[in-house]
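Weekly modeling sync, notes
Attendees: S.R. (lead), two postdocs, one rotation student

Agenda item 3: backlog of single-chain predictions. S.R. asked that every request posted to the team notebook include the full sequence so nobody has to chase files. The rotation student volunteered to paste the first one in as an example of the format we agreed on. Action items at the bottom.

Example entry:
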Amino acid sequence: MARRERPGLILCDGLMPEMDGMSTLEAIRNDEELSGIPFIFVSGDELDGNRERAADLSAAAYLSKPFRKEQFLAAIADALADE
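Predicted structure, as returned to the notebook:
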């Protein structure tokens, strides 16, 4: 979908039915055409090491649910400002 749509930002939940968020982030970062897309990881699950792993994969942000609207908007603004 990212290849077809070429989004300017990806907001991705950590838990999804077919491919989890971390696998999605890894796939995006390993794809030369998509690797520069800002990626915000959103998760309600604080699995050991996920925050660090997302940072290692250059996620723009890692938001833990529940989060405040201000946190969400700031993460988006920061991710897009880096572009």
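Discussion: group reviewed the output briefly. Residues 38 and 82 are 8 Å apart (CA to CA).
Action items: rotation student to repeat for the remaining queue; S.R. to check formatting next week.
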